[in-house]
Amino acid sequence: MEAAPLPFRAAVDALRGARLRPEIEIEATRPPQRLAPYAYALEAAVLDDDEDLADGRLILLHDPAGHEAWQGSFRLVTLIRAELEPEMAADPLLPEVCWAWLTGALQSRGLPYGEPSGTVTRASSHYFGGLSSRPAASQIEIRASWTPREGLGGVPDTASHLASWCDLLAQVAGLPPAVPGDASVVTLPQRRGPRPR
By its UniProt entry, which InterPro entries does this protein fall under (predicted)? Predict the structure, then answer.
């Protein structure tokens, strides 16, 4: 980190100092090496009574020279996964709703961003043979990236982007909104119990 440019170090320091919901456990992890000259990664899990409701990874990328596809010098990349009830996974509007949650989480905090892209995937697993005792399982997966707009000193407000990402993670996990009384937020009902491995 000592050799990294000052804007990247400041962005990482802001991530490290962010205050998050108590249900979300987060820790630094090894970032990918080839996506950008500088990268920092976090892994998170949403826990309820030690039950893993959802998990995700958020990666901060930085290219001091800028990147044409990003339209900036920073990029945030995420993967979020959660188990679902099969009936919810069958909802044809689920992908659009999950994508709206991502953009809504950023907009609800007034965060300037650009160039969003991503996928929402739902998958079902059915078990056979030696695994036939396991119930069928359904999962939602959100893969996305966006460019956080840079503020003073060329540094984006990464702490607020992290908080927004945690809002999305909590919403996918089926937790109530962090702000009491916010009836505009709808969350996914989740499968309770251990995740199949």
Answer: DUF3000 (IPR021555)
β-sheet bridge partners, residue 57:
43, 79
Number of helices and strands in the chain (H, E)? 4, 6
Residue type, 62: H
Domain positions in the chain are 6-173
Q: What is the pTM of this model?
A: 0.84
CB under 8 A, 24+ apart: contacts of 60-63: 60/8, 60/11, 60/12, 60/15, 60/158, 61/35, 61/36, 62/4, 62/5, 62/7, 62/8, 62/11, 62/36, 62/37, 62/38, 63/36, 63/37, 63/38
Q: What are phi and psi of 117, to 5 degrees?
A: -155, 155
Q: How far is CA 107 from CA 72, 113, 133, 160, in A?
A: 19, 9, 43, 11
Query: Judging by beta carbons within 10 Å of its beta carbon (0-12, 13-18, 19+), is residue 143 exposed, middle or buried?
Result: middle
63-94 confidence digits (pLDDT tens) = 999 889 999 999 999 999 998 877 777 788 88
Separation of alpha carbons 42 and 173, rounded Å: 18
